[in-house]
């Protein structure tokens, strides 16, 4: 198997996607922010000292998806044409999910992962004064559609 991000001499390079035709693509990712029961209660009743934690996390995740190429040196600059960040408070913390869409030459898996990562980081930032043990767990791509390799979902691989 050849590594696409290395040239013949083993140096890092950005893959050239110039000749590829733009196609509609999407990717989804998930992660989890584990919080104490006290933080979960504060999130549920909307009384966090720093303000609306979920609103800040949602916007942070969307903004992060649009800035992925700035953060990951070999990621392509692509048009992020849609980004949704969903947050669900559960008894152990916050489930974070994102779906990112584009019509471009390369996929948006990294954009979806970046959206989830930064949304989770925003939650940690907003609650760290209440619970220093808050942690981010289980960050993963859960699905992708479009492109040369077609569709894939984590559920398909679990069979």
In short:
31% of the residues lie in helices and 29% in strands.
Model description:
With 159 residues, the protein is α+β, with helices and mostly antiparallel strands. It has a single domain, classed as Alpha-Beta Plaits. The protein has helices at 37-45, 53-66, 68-71, 109-127, 154-157; strands at 23-34, 82-90, 93-104, 135-145, 152-153. The protein has a five-stranded antiparallel β-sheet. Helix 2 (53-66) runs antiparallel to helix 4. The mean pLDDT is 92.
Descriptive key words:
29% strand; five-stranded antiparallel beta sheet; 159 residues; alpha+beta; 31% helix; Alpha-Beta Plaits
Class from secondary-structure proportions: alpha+beta
The CATH topology label is: Alpha-Beta Plaits
Large-scale geometry: elongated
Distance between the termini: 25 Å
Order of helices and strands: EHHHEEHEEH
Total separate domains:
1
Q: Catalogue the unreliable spans.
A: none
Gyration radius, rounded:
17 Å
Widest β-sheet, arrangement of strands: 2-3-1-4-5
How are the elements arranged and paired?
Layout: E1 23-34, H1 37-45, H2 53-66, H3 68-71, E2 82-90, E3 93-104, H4 109-127, E4 135-145, E5 152-153, H5 154-157
Antiparallel strand pairs: 1-3, 1-4, 2-3, 4-5
Helix pairs in contact: 2-4
């Amino acid at each position: 198997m050849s590594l696409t991000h290395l040239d013949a001499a083993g140096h890092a390079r950005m893959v050239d996607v110039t000749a590829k035709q733009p196609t509609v693509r999407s990717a989804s990712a998930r992660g989890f922010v584990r919080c104490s029961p006290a933080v979960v209660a504060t999130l549920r009743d909307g009384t966090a000292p720093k303000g609306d934690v979920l609103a800040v996390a949602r916007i942070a995740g969307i903004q992060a998806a649009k800035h992925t190429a700035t953060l990951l040196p070999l990621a392509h600059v692509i048009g992020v044409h849609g980004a949704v960040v969903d947050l669900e408070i559960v008894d152990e913390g916050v489930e974070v999910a994102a779906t990112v869409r584009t019509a471009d030459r390369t996929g948006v898996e990294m954009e979806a992962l970046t959206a989830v990562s930064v949304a989770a980081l925003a939650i940690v930032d907003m609650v760290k004064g209440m619970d220093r043990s808050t942690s981010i767990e289980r960050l993963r791509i859960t699905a992708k559609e479009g492109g040369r390799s077609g569709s894939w979902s984590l559920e398909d691989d679990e069979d």
